[in-house]
Design goal:
It is a single chain. With 67 residues, the protein is an all-alpha fold. The chain is 63% helix and 0% strand. The protein is elongated and about 70 Å long. The model has no long low-confidence stretch (mean pLDDT 85).
């Protein structure tokens, strides 16, 4: 018993030709890969740097201490 393919063979060959013709890194070839590979890590890094800087500022000025 044979299952029908998920995509037609012509579409698959077309996608393969497209992705093989792009000269970028493998993890940046898809349409949304810049968001997941660049924007999200950059946002996490910026947030963590902000929180670290705020903590250092608060410690050096004695702000936000628990009683």
């Amino acid at each position: 018993m044979s299952e029908p393919p998920f995509r037609p063979r012509e579409k698959l060959l077309e996608k393969q030709r497209y992705f093989q013709s792009i000269h970028r890194h493998t993890y940046l070839k898809g349409p949304y890969d810049k968001i997941t590979s660049v924007a999200i890590p950059a946002a996490l890094a910026a947030t963590s740097l902000f929180l670290i800087a705020r903590g250092i500022y608060n410690m050096s000025h004695g702000i936000g201490k628990k009683e």
